[in-house]
């Protein structure tokens, strides 16, 4: 397989287009920290850090889970089990992306550089969580939830408790939809000795847990709006996010998981973008 083909397969493997889940929240954190667009140099390095960190995390996950993926009918067609990429190539790609991430952090400020190993520990460590705890969904939520706080630090060089609330919101949001997504692997997880909320409490219980987490999201969003003095646009964005979350839960049920991919990929990408766009509109309207 030629190098260009391996690059294409690698991008498909890490699903780089799904950066849309975390990237809007990183941009939201940067906007709130700067009260508008941060300097273009800072914004550029934030984008590099976000894409490289997520690429390292996804590639490492595929490397760490290669044997598990090969045993799961849903995932056995992934690049390593299918023989399209070698484990060594994927691990090398992970190291390269992690290096680019550290370089981006070093180019931002001292605190981002000092925290970069901790961020990588969370991002890469998630891949092993299903082996030891049913709460792996929360670790994935933290991995994405870091984004707005990290972007805030990138802009200001310090952390503010207000933006940590947004990290908590993203954590609950991601953990909720990851619990739903894990329902399709419940039987495999039980057979393989892996842990998850669906494996532990069943699909009905998993749906209840996801709903509680998303209710927590909707409870925290008005608090965030109050802390950052959102105007009409910001509150409209929150209302729309609530409507989209409700729709996400209406199109899937414990008895019908056929639209789970639509709920997981399409709707969550839309929710992330809607939140960012309305917060951005609010920030710039208040500057006028």
Task: Break the fold down into its secondary structure elements and pairings.
Blueprint: H1 3-14, H2 23-34, H3 40-64, H4 66-71, H5 87-108, H6 110-125, H7 136-156, H8 161-182, H9 186-192, H10 197-227, H11 232-250, H12 260-287
Helix pairs in contact: 2-3, 2-7, 2-12, 3-5, 3-7, 5-6, 6-7, 7-8, 8-10, 8-12, 9-10, 10-11, 11-12
List keywords for this structure.
12 helices; mainly alpha; 288 residues; Tetracycline Repressor, domain 2; globular
Give the helix level as a range of percent: over 70%
| Fraction of residues in β-strands | under 5%
- Class by SSE composition: mainly alpha
Instruction: State the name of the first-level CATH class.
Output: Mainly Alpha
- CATH homology superfamily: UbiA prenyltransferase
Low-confidence stretches: none
Distance from N terminus to C terminus (CA atoms, Å) equals: 55 Å
SSE order, as H and E? HHHHHHHHHHHH
Radius of gyration: 19 Å
Shape label = globular
Total domains = 1
CATH topology: Tetracycline Repressor, domain 2
Integer average pLDDT: 90
**CATH second-level architecture:** Orthogonal Bundle
- Number of separate strands: 0
- By DSSP (H or I, 4+ residues per run), the number of helices equals 12
Q: How would you portray this structure in words?
A:
The structure is a single chain. By secondary structure, the chain is an all-alpha fold. Helix 5 (87-108) runs antiparallel to helix 6, helix 7 (136-156) packs antiparallel against helix 8 and helix 9 packs across helix 10. The protein has helices at residues 3-14, 23-34, 40-64, 66-71, 87-108, 110-125, 136-156, 161-182, 186-192, 197-227, 232-250, 260-287. The protein has one domain: Orthogonal Bundle (Tetracycline Repressor, domain 2).
